[in-house]
Write a structure and sequence with these properties.
- It is a single chain.
- By secondary structure, the chain is an alpha+beta fold.
- It folds into 7 domains: 125 residues, Rossmann fold (3-Layer(aba) Sandwich); 96 residues, Topoisomerase I, domain 2, CATH 1.10.460; 169 residues, Topoisomerase I, domain 3 (Distorted Sandwich); 114 residues, Topoisomerase I, domain 4; 58 residues, no CATH class; 60 residues, no CATH class; 47 residues, no CATH class.
- The chain has 21 helices and 30 strands.
- The strands form 8 sheets. Strands 9, 10, 11, 12, 13, 14, 16 and 17 form an 8-stranded antiparallel beta sheet that branches.
- Helix 6 crosses helix 14 and helix 9 packs across helix 11.
- It is globular, with a radius of gyration of 33 Å.
- The two termini are 36 Å apart.
- The C terminus is likely disordered.
- InterPro entries: Topo_IA, Topo_IA_2, Topo_IA_AS, Topo_IA_cen, Topo_IA_cen_sub1, Topo_IA_cen_sub2, Topo_IA_cen_sub3, Topo_IA_core_domain.
- Keywords: DNA-binding, Isomerase, Magnesium, Metal-binding, Topoisomerase.
- It is an enzyme of class 5 (isomerase).
Length: 783
């Protein structure tokens, strides 16, 4: 048995560290958190100074039992969990559960899993930092209080289903998405005309090339643009002035958690959670430094390696030492940016990790490279028939510098509609130019784009909301709760006008462009909008961006030992709890309804509202003698924006699309999505099949195919009782309606001989004593 036990968070990291430390050390994993707050009664004794009540979850009992045994047999236990607040809290929980003395137990931290870093950590241990523990504990308790007290308010005042919940950071994130959506919906597009002139000139090889010059501002109307073109008929064009300005571009800082998430989204198309999963693997296998950080610092050792790599690969001229400063003064405990642990490795073998690693390597190298040197030429071109000027501009890259390795991506918000500048041919003052064509093209203003996961992280960081460890779980949570969905939006065709001056003749054409198409954007659901409006109305402080950011600063103050954690919780809880009590007493129940008009056939009101299974349109009311008619909204439709015409179109379902094998085929949308009904049986439609337009030729083969598949897995059917005995991937089972019941092991081999009485008995037994569900594996970081 080893003399020293080292406890880390993940098994992958344990293997890597054990190889480094050698035979005197045994390295074990605690698999993340080993304790959490009790579920019952909030798990917090509020009257006793917010004392938390911790338990060891069922799925961690085996891990804790093994750690206790190994710890008992070891001479010394070293706590080596991650170096942030979450990791510090995990070490404290381990000390509590294993009976270790926090005043003497050695705590070691490192931000890279390399031999020098691990050995240095062992040589220089420290003790548990209770300020960091208390900062994490305060966050966990405060978020539990908000969720535990706000969620029942939502159930009582607006729930269509008792699964609504609220969270401190999550609710504010949803608010951002909701407000952006409303901004887009209310945006009034205006058009203007952009003038571009295309000239012919000789390049340095003497070839005739075309280059572009832009007109004097934008014209508000087609008439104004046409007047300008008319003024240019018969004009001569002369170069009036040429300005050559040197310019430079500087590299971006090395990656932090948020900038890595943003750039991996832009360049690789990765979701925030995928980026963090891959980064975690790279860290645990010793390839990169710790991936939860808001620091842009690089260590002296790293700077030396980077300098060597640049000088070797690109030459001395390309190296320029730089120190970057954090925008956030409260940058958390991790003291270095995300970088490769060994700069000489420009790639890794693992195909899953390769692209993200290379992105990190390039960004790190580029951050210490020389500026790119540019030469920008601006030529002013006079028009003989009026006093206006055209402007041609071009860029020449004189020295590529860091651009040899890396160019930072840009968000839609930063792009506008400007084009990349090209290279101009050699021009001289007073040179006369030949006009090939001048165009005035109609262009439209655009609303701010919807958030991507990465641009939402950027916004949260700008507002000071959340910290590196919270971005990914926040975005995952709001989608799981059904408040936000990530999806694509198809573009729509739009006409635009082009006026053209060529050979002194003006022509007008109308062309079409695709506009409004979006990919992998965050859309608020109707439920998300309703919850946001309710919380904004009754819990203004909790939903305020500034207040949420101030809470984060208070956590930082606790971490720095400047504030007591339970005093901070008292300051928050007392007004918050009073707010909850008042809302429960006074707030009206939220209906989430919007009257669209009257049904032209029956004269009954047509309402868009939230139903038990989501947003829908209703004709009539429950007070009517006739039962109201309902239709589910399409995924792309919203209660807030659906028109009367669009609502009535939804009542075209169910559609009878014709006869198949002598029986009608109906298509409709149900609780589980679009389906076809044939011969009293139901068949889910494929994703690409639109129930409003799909035809029999597409649906008939689907019915035949699914029926064959079903026949192959059917063992036995009790028609009267509507009980089926079916083959499944994990063995035979019983199906009644939408419920499945697994057959006991002793009945599986003789499933074909089962009687209806036996089937009923099995179902009753499983209803009375349902099998215990296995708890899902706990995530490394608390959400």
């Amino acid at each position: 048995m080893a003399k020293n036990l080292v406890i880390v968070e993940s098994p992958a990291k344990a293997k890597t560290i054990e190889k480094i430390l050698g035979k005197d050390f045994e390295v074990k994993s605690c698999f993340g958190h080993i304790r959490d707050l009790e579920k019952d009664d909030m798990g917090i004794d509020i009257k006793n100074n917010f004392k938390p009540k911790y338990i060891i979850p069922e799925d961690k009992e085996k891990v804790v039992k093994e750690l206790k045994k190994v710890a008992k047999d070891s001479d010394e236990v070293w706590l080596a969990t991650d170096e942030d607040r979450e990791g510090e809290a995990i070490s404290w929980h381990l000390a509590e559960v294993l009976g270790l003395d926090p005043k003497t137990t050695k705590r070691i931290v490192f931000h890279e899993i390399t031999k020098p870093a691990i050995e240095r950590a062992v040589r220089e241990p420290r003790l548990l930092d209770m300020n960091l523990v208390n900062a994490q504990q305060a966050r966990r308790i405060l978020d539990r209080i908000v969720g535990f007290e706000l969620s029942p308010v939502l159930w009582r005042k607006m729930s269509m289903r008792n699964s609504l919940s609220a969270g401190r950071v999550q609710s504010v994130a949803v608010r951002l998405i909701v407000e952006r959506e409303r901004e887009i919906n209310s945006f009034a597009t205006t058009s203007s005309f952009k003038v571009e002139a295309f000239f012919l000139a000789k390049d340095i090889q003497g070839r005739t090339i075309t280059f572009k010059a832009e007109g004097p501002g934008r014209f508000k109307t087609a008439e104004d643009a046409e007047t300008f073109l008319q003024q240019c008929v018969g004009a001569a064009y002369t170069v009036k002035d040429i300005t050559v300005k040197p310019g430079k571009k500087s590299p971006a800082a090395p990656f932090t958690t948020s900038t890595l998430q943003q750039e991996a989204s832009r360049k690789l198309g990765y979701s925030v959670s995928k980026t963090m999963l891959l980064a975690q693997k790279l860290y645990e296998s010793g390839q990169i430094t710790y991936m939860r950080t808001d620091s842009v610092n690089l260590s002296e050792t790293a700077m030396g390696e980077i300098s060597k790599a640049i000088n070797t690969n690109y030459g001395e001229r390309y190296f320029q030492s730089r120190k970057y400063k954090n925008k956030n003064e409260n940058a958390q405990e991790a003291h270095e940016a995300i970088r490769p642990t060994y700069m000489e490795n420009s790639t890794v073998d693992d195909s899953d990790l390769k692209r993200l690693y290379e992105l990190i390597w390039k960004r790190t190298i580029a951050s210490q490279m020389a500026d790119a040197e540019l030469e920008k030429t601006i030529a002013k071109i006079g028009i003989s028939t009026n006093n206006e000027e055209l402007t041609a501009s071009g860029e020449v890259l004189k020295f590529d510098g860091f651009l040899k390795v890396y160019m930072e991506g840009r968000d839609e918000e930063d792009e506008g509609d400007e084009e990349q500048e090209g290279v101009l041919p050699p021009l001289t003052v007073k040179q006369t130019l030949d006009l090939k064509e001048m165009k005035a093209t109609e262009r439209f203003t655009r609303a701010a784009p919807r958030y991507t996961e990465a641009s939402l992280v950027k916004k949260l960081e700008e507002l000071g909301i959340g910290r590196p460890s919270t971005y990914a779980p926040t975005i995952t949570t709001v989608q799981k709760r059904g408040y936000v969905e990530k999806r694509d939006k198809e573009g729509v065709k739009r006409d635009f006008r082009i006026l053209s001056l060529k050979n002194d003749q003006i022509t007008k054409v109308t062309e079409q462009e695709n506009t409004g198409a979006e990919k992998s954007k965050l859309f608020p659901t109707d439920l998300g909008m309703l919850v946001t409006d309710f919380l904004k109305q009754y819990f203004e402080r909790v939903m305020d961006y500034g207040f949420t950011a101030r809470i984060e600063e208070e956590f930082d103050e606790i971490a720095n030992g400047k504030k007591k954690w339970n005093i901070m919780l008292h300051d928050f809880y007392d007004p918050f709890h009073q707010n909850v009590e008042e809302t429960l007493e006074k707030a009206e129940r939220v209906k989430g309804e919007r009257l669209l008009g009257q049904d032209p056939t029956s004269g009954k009101p047509v309402t868009a509202r939230m139903g038990r299974f989501g947003p829908m349109v209703q004709i009539g009311t429950v007070e009517d003698e006739e039962k109201p008619r309902f239709a589910k909204l399409k995924q792309t439709q919203s209660i807030e924006t659906i028109s009367m015409e669009e609502a009535m179109d939804l009542f075209r379902l169910p559609r009878n699309i014709g006869l198949f094998e002598g029986t009608d085929v109906l298509v409709n949308i149900g609780r589980f999505g679009p389906y076809a009904q044939h011969d009293k049986k139901f068949y889910s439609l494929k994703k690409e099949m639109d129930p409003y337009t799909v035809e029999l030729e597409e649906v008939a083969p689907l019915i035949a195919e699914k029926r064959t598949a079903k026949d192959e897995r059917t063992i036995k059917v009790f028609e009267k009782e509507k009980i089926q005995v079916l083959k499944g991937p994990y063995g035979p089972y019983l199906k009644v309606g939408l419920r499945n019941y697994k057959l006991p092991k002793d009945k599986q081999e003789t499933a074909a001989d089962i009687t209806v009485e036996e089937a009923k008995a099995i179902i009753e037994e499983l209803k009375a004593n349902p099998p215990k569900k296995k708890a899902p594996p706990r995530k490394k970081k608390a959400e």
